[in-house]
Amino acid sequence: xxxxxxxxxxxxxxxxxxxxxxxxxxxxxxxxxxxxxxxxxxxxxxxxxxxxxxxxxxxxxxxxxxxxxxxxxxxxxxxxxxxxxxxxxxxxxxxxxxxxxxxxxxxxxxxxxxxxxxxxxxxxxxxxxxxxxxxxxxxxxxxxxxxxxxxxxxxxxxxxxxxxxxxxxxxxxxxxxxxxxxxxxxxxxxxxxxxxxxxxxxxxxxxxxxxxxxxxxxxxxxxxxxxxxxxxxxxxxxxxxxxxxxxxxxxxxxxxxxxxxxxxxxxxxxxxxxxxxxxxxxxxxxxxxxxxxxxxxxxxxxxxxxxxxxxxxxxxxxxxxxxxxxxxxxxxxxxxxxxxxxxxxxxxxxxxxxxxxxxxxxxxxxxxxxxxxxxxxxxxxxxxxxxxxxxxxxxxxxxxxxxxxxxxxxxxxxxxxxxxxxxxxxx
Amino acid sequence: xxxxxxxxxxxxxxxxxxxxxxxxxxxxxxxxxxxxxxxxxxxxxxxxxxxxxxxxxxxxxxxxxxxxxxxxxxxxxxxxxxxxxxxxxxxxxxxxxxxxxxxxxxxxxxxxxxxxxxxxxxxxxxxxxxxxxxxxxxxxxxxxxxxxxxxxxxxxxxxxxxxxxxxxxxxxxxxxxxxxxxxxxxxxxxxxxxxxxxxxxxxxxxxxxxxxxxxxxxxxxxxxxxxxxxxxxxxxxxxxxxxxxxxxxxxxxxxxxxxxxxxxxxxxxxxxxxxxxxxxxxxxxxxx
Lengths: 427, 288
Known about the structure:
The complex is a heterodimer. Chain A has helices at 25-37, 43-46, 88-95, 128-138, 143-157, 172-184, 202-218, 230-236, 254-264, and strands at 5-17, 49-50, 61-73, 77-82, 103-108, 112-115, 190-194, 222-226, 239-244, 247-253, 271-273, 286-294, 303-304, 310-318, 324-333, 338-343, 351-352, 357-364, 372-381, 388-400. By secondary structure, chain A is α/β, with parallel strands linked by helices. Chain B is mainly α. The two termini of chain B are 39 Å apart. Strand 5 (103-108) of chain A pairs antiparallel with strand 1 (12-14) of chain B. Chain B: Pfam families: ABC2_membrane.
């Protein structure tokens, strides 16, 4: 069967100029223009580094996106994930025609509407009702469309009482609710959504996610979704694109994409040594030097089966002669959901420091997690917890593989988190 | 929907550059409600939380006219013929302020709307168009006060006549708007990269007024400064204002050639402005 492609991106690249626009702009403009009239290629397109925020480049130009190719099918909900600065927002900006790509093209068979940030164009002096019309029109609705949905929009926002009050008198939460309500009733063929769920209270967030699910599943609309809320991405999207430094690292179903993404964030090694490049927080009184994970046979490994033991070994360096400390270990799933948190005191264990460097091991017997990738974060602090000595997010990761001694069936990650095999009895 | 599978039925394509020239009128028409709402927003929010409200529309031209009458007519002694100097000034200022409002309103389109342009797409030209239209409403109100004073002077015995070309007055105002829009779009495109133009507009517009025959008849400058009179003569703005006074008050002299010249320049400025605007709108958000 022929695929019904609604959106196609071909070789999309986007170049940005670093530093201050203004110094040297004129000379670059003139040089560019001089090349153009002689029919030569833009001289500044050839140079440019890949977009890695943390390393210092030698060029004034960077590629925020490079050679992005993908296709989206009708009715698909595509999650675009990646670290800060990976190029997600740039891609969405290009898709929503806010800015043009430097090279390449995007072809579309449907109207694209974007929700890059709710409340765009709200005017404080105008009433809620007037703003619904204005905002709706900015997002591409006609007056007729808005009028026909006005009651639904107002009801969804839950701001009925204030609808004829100027928006400047609204609380920020109310503004956001109203703005999201307008956006939620847009009916484009393709909807581009960026981080809108990060607003409002928990109840409203739930409502918003529900609405997004309606839009994608119920109404069969195509949605491109960018969010750092991995749980939201997971529950909404069917397919994912992982961006890294402006390039596509992975395209595939959403679970795999999330795994690749969380993989991106840390090492796949079973042991790590922390050095000055490690991103860490805290006073540094006590610091982690290294950590490693192994199974019940003390074999260092990254891939575990359900029912294996997980041993976390770590080395501490005492920089300021602390007598006591406490260590916390947090395990999170690939969608950033905390699964559990372990502290020494839970097992009546105290870390009393005598020498400058000491090594500890924490054995978790019989791990019963569903297949997927999990991350381990390490924290060292005072026994009271008032002061953090050292904290390393996603220091290590491990993967639980399908199969193993307990499981004979397939365990999709969407079905659950903990694998239990309790006693069954017929009564 | 019927031929989804043919390869070339894309609804639209996003490419690095616009075609050399494109004014997507169909798209602008699709967004006409937005244009209307922008105009409405501009009109109802301008003087919110002021005591005098829309009266401010009237205060500004009236006081300026009074000042001009005192300075240029009573002190400097510029002769306005049979027409009362106040009415002469009011006519010039009303038309001139429509132009300045259009120019200043549109010349920072990209800068002022960067936040909204950075979030959502709609035809960018809607914004400057809405400025020109909402200022037209403001102009309409100011023009009413001109008519009121016209009748006041008429019934108090001044020798006033109306020219039969008055029916073409709306066309003239449209051209004034188009000229302001064209120039404004041109400058707004440059402002995205070079902020210098913002300052140029704010003080340049004051100087331009003196070159645009607002407070004196065109004939006068030709008589008094024969060697520099051509600057005013070749200024399309001066010509439009002179023509407006010709239509409203039946004074001054205009020629068909001058009108053709003015209108040609106006159309040219508009299209150059549009060209730059089109080129800028695609990726100004990276430089603004």
